[in-house]
Amino acid sequence: MRLALAQVNATVGDLAGNADLVVDSCKAAVDQGAHLVVFPEMMLTGYPLEDLAMRLSLIEASKAAIEALAVRLKDEGCGDLVAMVGYLDQEPDVIDAPGIPKNAPLNNVAVIHDGAIVARQAKHHLWNYGVGDEIRNFVAGDTINIVQIGGIDVALAICEDLWRDGPSAAAKAADAALLVVPNGSPYEADKDDIRLELCARRAAEGECVLAYVNLVGGQDELVFDGDSIVVDASGTVLGRSGQFDPELLVVDLDLPAATPTMPSEDERFGGLAIKRTIITSEPFPTYEPLPVVQAERMSRNEEIYTALVTGLRDYVHKNGFQSVLFGMSGGIDSTLVAAIAVDALGPDNVNGISNPSAWSSEHSKSDAADMAERTGLSLDTIPIAPIFDSYQEALHLDGLAEENLQARIRAVIWMGLSNQHGHLVLACGNKSELATGYSTIYGDAVGAYAPIKDVPKTLVWELARWRNEIAEERGETPPIPPSTISKPPSAELRPGQLDSDSLPPYDLLDAVLDAYVERDLGSAAVIAEGHDPELVHRVVTLVDRAEYKRRQYPPGPKVSRRNFGRDRRVPITHRWREE
Asked: For the whole prediction, is pTM greater than 0.85?
């Protein structure tokens, strides 16, 4: 069997555009002689739908679109190809009741052949941890499909089903030679290694070949990295796609023929019905096998940086924007955001705004100008000192209020220019700042998207150095001025101000944040790991007090194991305090 895995970038709610992607990929699969093509989870509607899944108009549109797609594939010369396409469906005859999602939506996969849907399967295990919230939005399925294609039995599991015990054993019990797994699996650092181990383990358990296909692209706070994999029962990788880019991975498989004896009608496994469908029983003709494709894996820093670029690019484009604008202070955070934006959108669509105040250093202004020169982005300078003086004549603020006024004046300027010219405003705060509340609400925290909100400060420097090193290896001009990386960080809201005046050293801070935020340890457990008790209590207090700020911060791409937002949901108002 020649198998194609269509690793594509679907857009939530764009049924027509996503259907076009399916048709284009099927045509490419036919051109390469494929017999079966598998698309990611919820391909036709995009993923995740969140509460859109319960909207009856979308359910009905999805059901109509999958039927129309089956006919269209035959009309456009893909009728002999078997295509497995994820879509939104509905469980019939379910009465609305507490605990049942409105309109009983199903996370479904349609098996399409010769202009018709020949089998359907709904996801059994609904993802309900981390950033997943599927129990809220879907009804669980109760059937496992075994479809015979070219005389070979193929079993089907959907994303989270693979992470639970059952599908591999069911494939083994049904003597399936191939288990295909459509996925909408979001990116986080180092997840590709976990995926490969999981796929190899499930293939061994099922004594079959396992084919895992995943989405690529950005959707709000999530980024999908592809990393589609085909692995046999011995753990040998038979094919593996690249990361983050659309790709049609085509793999030749030498699979045993289906067992000739059909089971009884009441065959079941683990409480699930097993449904068998013969699509074609005649073996495929022999052909010259293709070379094995195994894309080179990215380094950890390249992987994270590419996720940030992908998330920003798709957030901008899928929301109908072309260009971005942000405050460009000459500091490391806004400079890294500038590099990401240029890589995502091109320099002509990136607009930096320098807003020097009376306390802005000359090196910050010159570093911002140097960055613009290195990358070709547009940089405009609008001093805020005269505006600040006008406010002070009326308000007479001092201390922290005076400092924050400067940040809020800058935000008014950015949003005004955004409204005037249609640029999308980016917030440049990093995860360490968000964790501790080291940002000005309605000031530097304004914007529509925050590219590095899930990147700790220590990783900001690491990514900046990596991006320059890669540029040098390519013979390009490093985008980030070296002085921006080497100078001590400062908000520059008062004379001689440094971040270290308000925060612990970032290497110590990020280590405590990893324990308290990423791993959810209590204060005592963090201290037990060897951290200074005074430091721990100080950091924990800052984190707990800043929840209201984080709730008002823009979305940004998840790259860590636990991001602020969908992953970590803590009440704003509570009286629990770590001792």
From this structure: yes
